[in-house]
Amino acid sequence: MQNPTITKSLSNYPISAVLDSLQESLAAGHTVLKSPTGSGKTTIAPITLLGQDWLHGKKIYMLEPRRVAARAAAYRMSSLLGERIGQTVGYITRYSKEFSANTKIFIVTEGVFLKTIQKDQELTDIGLVIFDEYHERSLIADLCLALCLDLATLREDFRLLVMSATLDSEKLAKLLDNARIVESAGKSFPVSVIYQPPATEFTPLSMSVTSAISYALANYEGDILTFLPGIADIKSVERELESIGNNVKILPLYGDLPIEQQDKILAPKQNRQRRVVLATPVAETSLTVDGVRCIVDSGLHKHPVYNPKNGLTSLVTSRISRASAEQRRGRAGRQNSGMCIRLWDEKIHHGLLAFTPPEICNADLTSLVLELAHWGVNDAKQLKWLDPPGKGAWEKAVKLLTQLSALNKKGEITDIGRKLRKFPLHPRLSYMLLKATELSLGLTGCYLAGILSERDIFQGHDNGIDIRDRIKALSSLSNRSSSYSGRANLNTQVCKQILQQVEQWRKTLGIRWAETINSEETGNLLCFCYPDRIAIGRSQQDSTFQLANGRQARISAQDSLNNSQIIVAAKVDVRGGNGKIFLAAPTTLMELEKNHPDLISTSDHIRWDKKELAVQARRETFIGLAKISSKPISLQDKDVALTLLLKGIQETGSEALPWSKSSRELQARLQTLFNYDQNNWQDFSDEALIQDLTWLEPFCYGFTKVQQLRDIDFQSALLAKLSYNKQQLLQTLAPTHTKVPSGSNIKITYHLGDEPRLAVRLQEVFGMCDTPTICGGSLPLTLHLLSPARRSMQITKDLKSFWQRTYPEIKKELAGRYPKHYWPDNPLEAQATSRTKRKM
Predict the structure, then answer these.
(1) Fewer CB within 10 Å, N or C, the chain?
(2) Together in a domain, 145 and 275
(3) Residue 262: closest CA among 391, 81, 94, 71
């Protein structure tokens, strides 16, 4: 039965043409309403469905993705009914609510509805749940729809109406048990589109937006609605527009804006002054800003992206989808023909994603898994999803909740898990609140949770990352009037929202206001919720910290926490190589050992130190993958030390061995024998010695440093590779000296890679016919025949040929240069000597 109060107004809304079909469809079962921007679905559908027989007098709940939209829709419906807000139509959001015992239609945010359905899992007093703007596909919306579908199997009288402007209706209808699809036309005037990309890829966003706004003000009529990715971008553009003139009013619009300011923007215009509304995507759907005829679209939005590998969520700015671009364009055609200026190239537009990916595909699922456990589900496959939760993120969530003792080994919710659900927070923060209360730090924990769950209470830049400063500022504000502004950059609106939450949590936990707030315990409390983000300082020079999860992140070199050895990062972005820490608090190793000993692991390691060329035993202390300290300890296992030392020597190479001139000569003698007879002698090359160091083991047992090898008799170590008989043969086959005709015992020179040589003065080999040999006469020595001044005159391996051919030619020259020495005509018959003629 149609409400007579609004009958006259229905003709103004395109949805009026399908209201009968919608009512008939819902009487039969679940329904999908496909309706574009401007159809009136948000305001008209709920109030015209009230009083339907199949509702049996039960209430209607409509879910809105944003607080601003929920409140605006409720006020608009009440206005159509000619009532004050809170009578037939009411609303409930996180920070405000208006309803009464007579309220039949509740406009609620998705988070509020989740709490409602978990409290009453049969929704006993609710007959219809409407999902408005479901195409936005938030994580909570998908969860709520899955729970509603599960509930619907128990109640034949329960109905679902899913409304969307752009979603795949066929796929959605199939999910809703082959629900009927009702399509409505929209009410939209023509909107032209022009593409105005930035001058260069380096042009700041604020500059491009300001340029487009100036162009629109000069060339088009009406107010301008500008879509920007975040509040910081809004502030930046506001500064750029300061000189635009008094005839244009600049108005920001975002979710955390005070309600009074939101109402002024969304209310009908009272004058003809042109307005430029700078909005986040909050104005993309469900809201109509009166007087808007031009859209300036940055084409960007911020959205969370979860990385299951490190458990961190990053707020990413990326391009919107084509569907979102169309939604934004439609805002200019709600009341009249309009214009949309898109700050990107038309070619880029065709390459945009068709639809915005649902949050469930790349979100942190910890809260979702906990909610499902409370519902009695420990496997996502037990419910129906338009897109199922990702396996990796699901497993990571289960692991974390198990560590927090919120789930047991079977994946079932525990008493602690039920306590965590009492707070509209990430389970990490809820767990911290419980621990803080146990430590009589409950109020400090409430302040900390509030600060971490909202935007930064400090506005602007260069505020530092220390959370303790924020707790002190918030505490000072709460102890004074709501208008207190001890810091000029304090965002009192955000502070007010935090203090509202603190009051609720304080009551839930039974905390007295008189409890002392101890901001110095912030680091301690953060360890309960973010043990994987405890960070160890690595370099003050570049302000780098290593997180317990293995990643690295930096802070500003000028930040006060740069001098801290250990901090706990509450908000951090680790995309790319080095991440950035935005909020943190310091702690110490002593505090960690006292309050969180389970997070600290200690292990003894024995390893080869390449730099010191030594085996080192160290006791290393870790938090996760981050090393806190490393201290030397005494080395007990000599066998392990020997193995590592020998392996280290092999890695270093033969230069690690304690070579001396004499040991190198011995090596060369031994290698000469190997080259002479490889079947019976070992290879003593550097490569062979290093490859197998078993021969060295008896000489360095108990050693830990290469330097200690200098203390061993290295020649004995080399000879130890030989048997006793081979050692005797060594002197026979590769002697160190050989006797020449003069009677002198001349040293044979051995070098690796060279043939053995004998450097001897020419007079000392007079009478020697054949070249001396080693290796049993098989290897002739290379003779370096020297002058009396010990300069080399001739190198030969054929002494006989030298006497016959070369000696006669050089004799006269030598006799003239060295007249005191004996130069016979027949050297083979002459007496060898090491003296001059006078001493012979």
Answers:
(1) N
(2) no
(3) 71
Q: Is 661 in the same domain as 689?
A: yes
Token pair belonging to 586: 């310091």
Residue whose entry in the numeric block shows the structure tokens 């060594």: 730
Select from 332, 361, 390 the last residue of a domain. 361
In a shared domain, residues 762 and 716: no
DSSP 5-43: GGHHHHTTSGGGGGHHHHHHHHHHS-EEEE--TTS-HHH
Separation in Å, CA 665 to CA 223, 243, 718, 731: 96, 89, 11, 13
Tokens linked to 761: 């003065």
Count the neighbouring beta carbons within 10 Å of the beta carbon of residue 516: 9
Q: Do 744 and 723 share a domain, yes or no?
A: no
Task: Please check whether residues 150 and 208 belong to one and the same domain.
Answer: no
- 35, two tokens: 């309706």
User: Does residue 643 belong to any structural domain of this protein?
Assistant: no
Q: Is residue 507 part of a domain?
A: no
pLDDT at site 7: 57
Q: Locate tokens 């960690």: which residue?
A: 592
451, 497 Cβ separation under 8 angstroms: no
Using one digit for the tens of pLDDT, what is the confidence trace for 616-652? 999 999 999 999 988 999 888 899 999 999 999 999 9
Name the token pair of 144. 């709520």
| Domain final position from 309, 342, 361 | 361
User: Would you give the end-to-end CA distance of the chain in angstroms?
Assistant: 146
| C-alpha R_g of the chain | 44
Predicted confidence at residue 814, as pLDDT, reads 86
Q: Which domain holds residue 352?
A: 191-361
Neighbours of 528 (CB within 10 A): 23
Dig out the tokens for 669 from the structure: 């003698």
- What average pLDDT does the structure give for the chain? 91
* Same-domain pairing of 28 and 144: yes
Residue 835 confidence (pLDDT):
78
Compute φ and ψ for 345, nearest 5 degrees. -80, 150
Q: Are strands 544-547 and 534-539 parallel, antiparallel or unpaired?
A: antiparallel
- Mode of pairing for the β-strands spanning 105-109 and 191-195: unpaired
Q: Rounded distance, CA 176 to CA 164, Å? A: 14
Q: Are residues 707 and 792 located together in one domain of the fold? A: no
Structure tokens at 280: 């986040």
- Give the Cα separation of 222 and 801 in Å (integer): 115
Please name the amino acid found at residue 795: I
- What backbone torsions phi and psi does residue 618 show, to the nearest 5 degrees? -135, 150
Whole-model pTM?
A: 0.77
pLDDT above 90 for 28: yes
Are the CB atoms for 275 and 296 separated by under 8 Å? Answer: no
Neighbour count for residue 810 (Cβ, 10 Å)? 17
Residue 218 CB contacts under 8 Å (≥ 6 apart), including other chains? none
Element at 204 (helix H, strand E): none
Whether 497 contacts 455, CB under 8 Å = no
Alpha-carbon span 740 to 764, nearest angstrom: 7
The total of structural domains in the chain comes to: 4
- Residue 519 maps to a domain: no
Note the residue count of the chain.
840
Q: Is residue 684 part of a domain?
A: yes
195 and 177, same structural domain? Answer: no
| 545 to 428, 535, 562, 619: CA distances (angstroms) | 22, 6, 9, 21
